[in-house]
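The protein record quoted in full:

***
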Amino acid sequence: MASNVNPTVRRRRLGQELRRLRELKGMTAEEVAERLLVSQSKISRLENGRRSISQRDVRDLCGVYEVEDHRIVDSLMQMAKDSRQQGWWHAFGDIPYSVYIGLETDAASLRVYDPQVVPGLLQTRQYAESLIAGALPETAPTDVEKRGNVRLRRQERVKATENPLRLWVVIDEAALRRRVGDKQLMIDQLEFLIDQSQLPHVTVQVLPFSMGAHPGINGQYAILEFPDASDSSVVYIEGVTSDLYLEKANDVQKYSVMYEHLRAQALNVDQTREFITKVAKEYADGTAG
């Protein structure tokens, strides 16, 4: 198979297909688990794409579902094989949010709201490494550098000349005023943010303090959409020890509506650039903070 096969997305598609076959058979995950003498949680993880799927798993499940078409079985077996390949991020070692990176790598568009920091896809290296070191104070310098390298590698989707990631970002004013590193680092970061916002496929809006309470007050989230219609959208919520992925249509719809409210309440694109320029000048004058 081609080297650009995305194992995360393949695993997710395979899980969706296995769930469809189970539902066609009219079986519950608990019933399948009992037939295969495995835990119900394993079946659930296989179906939601959070666990690697072996060809043996596929063979056993197809047997339970009485799939007689060998072409379907062979196709699913190939997907299982592809899903066990390693994505580009594996070259950087153990990355806690590797599932998210796999989804982001294959996404067609990404909508992000962040109340605290500039989103990773729009960070400079210096800002990223200073932020990582501050957020994870027990992290070794080599690991901070590694995470910074991963962040820059992710940004290639934004910088791509062909089929770039369509990125829409709403950030709280707090993200601009939270000093990460020294004032020159912040000036460079804000200028970079302005530069990136001028790309035709990147939209940046700032939600100023003056807007008061708003629908995103509870925290950061991202909505990923994919080019293949068979891949449902995903809401990603980052956690300290574990992350949350919401894929049910009702959940995605609620977060999408909330995002529309955020976009409506935020400054428009031109106002946002003026606002970021103003904050950068405050850093230069020593009046920011």
Q: What stands out?
A: The longest helix spans residues 7-25.
